[in-house]
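User: Show me sequence and structure for the first protein, then do the same for the second.

Assistant: Starting with the first protein.
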Amino acid sequence: MWPRAGCDGGQASVELVAGALGLMLAGFVAFQLLAAGYAAVMAGHAAEAAALALANGRAADDAVDAAVPGWPRDAERVRREGGRVIVTLVPPSPLGFLRARLSVTSEAAVRLPAGDS
């Protein structure tokens, strides 16, 4: 026997819950993409700032900290190889296992005067 008109047996509720979960998943994916993109841009700015600091005889780490204000200290790594600075930023994520996989790296270089390294 077919259901009567107006009695859908809870199908609308199931569709509402499934739609809400799909919307939440799409929002989470969009958030992660935006966070990774922002981290990539900020890593580039930080690497450039660190290289300019080296050219002016200042510390690269301090320049990175100034270039990415508000970024957690444990989410940024700075390596220096001569006049080359490599900055890695880990974007925020509510899922811990995803943070390291989304990390972005940028580098910049400057020619240092002889004797500086």
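Switching to the second protein now.
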Amino acid sequence: MPPWPLKNSKHEKFALAIADGKTCAEAYVLAGYKKNKGNATSLAATPEIQSRVSQIKIEAAAAAQASVRRVVTELARIAFADITEAVEIVDGRVRVKDTASWSPDLRAAVAEISDGRDGVRIKFHSKPQAIETLAHHLSMFKENVDLNVSVSLADLVNGSYRLERGELQVVDGKMIEVTPAPTDAKIRTAE
């Protein structure tokens, strides 16, 4: 295991900046180097830097008592909060329920409570943002779909002719080659 912190102080600053969420190029400059995207990317790819960044993140998570499970739980609290747990309508008027009766999930979802001239206002954390973040974490969205297709114009034309002649069929979005049914016709041979 390499020594922590890194012996090279610029490398240590670079790793700290990467772990803090900076881009490679930003971290490279913050570490004291002249701007050079290629060198920044190369440095970030070294095993020494990658190990150090991982170590910094592990230490930060432990210090914050953060874990993937805890983060997902907090996001779920926000994403699935129900405002009717915080307020009720009595005689046509909105009434805030006693906060002592609020569940821990509801309390975590509330960003702010203020009392102004228009009455009490309860502001929740962003549900759409929490739902989107959860969905990304759970891989519910397809990203970086490669749409590069290397098919020549000749292949496209030939494929369309084969479709027309019934040699190819589309089944479940895939091209299937159709094997012609055997015929009873006798093959004539030249005599």
